[in-house]
Please model this.
Amino acid sequence: MKNRNPARRDFFMLLSGSFMNVSRQQIADFAILALRWYLAYYMFDYGVGKLMGNQFGAPDPRILDMPVKQVDRFFLAWHLFGLSRSFNVIVGLFQILGGVLIVMNRTALVGAVFLLPIIANTFFIDLAFTSNVPGEALTIRLACMMLSDFIILYYYRNKLLIAWQAITRGISARFRYPWWVYLLLVPVGLLIDATWGVIIWPLKTVITLMLR
Model:
């Protein structure tokens, strides 16, 4: 029986031939690109949600009228996170920045390194506070996001190794000091901490008032 639609046959032959010509390197590169956009999507989603004040808080106002011991730790933690406007703004901006960095080709590796502690910190918070509620899905998703980030870092491991060698090679004190100088580091460190506290306190007060 003859094929009555040669155009369709030619199309499928062309399509199959195109897939056969795709190399493993191209498939891997496309997969990494997809993982980068996957992370960027959720970073934008979480970041904008925090800036809009929609991510945290108690889903049902009646939960706030319950005794603390009866409230699921997931809802309790999310309510406490929602109380701090500055926390939501700062974390949200960092997540959006990480999403922008990992999308851009030139800064993809920087974005992957930048996002790793953010995703890991969120993962461990969710792991600690989620229980038998829908929040468990967040832990699974964040685990997948961490794995995606590790895969991206592994894909660019050669560049990452070069960067690591560049920033760790030849780092040391320029001068040698006698042993007793190191004993002074403790009181000097305390003095530095107190000095910075005095300097930063007015700035912290202003920022807190602005973010309320």
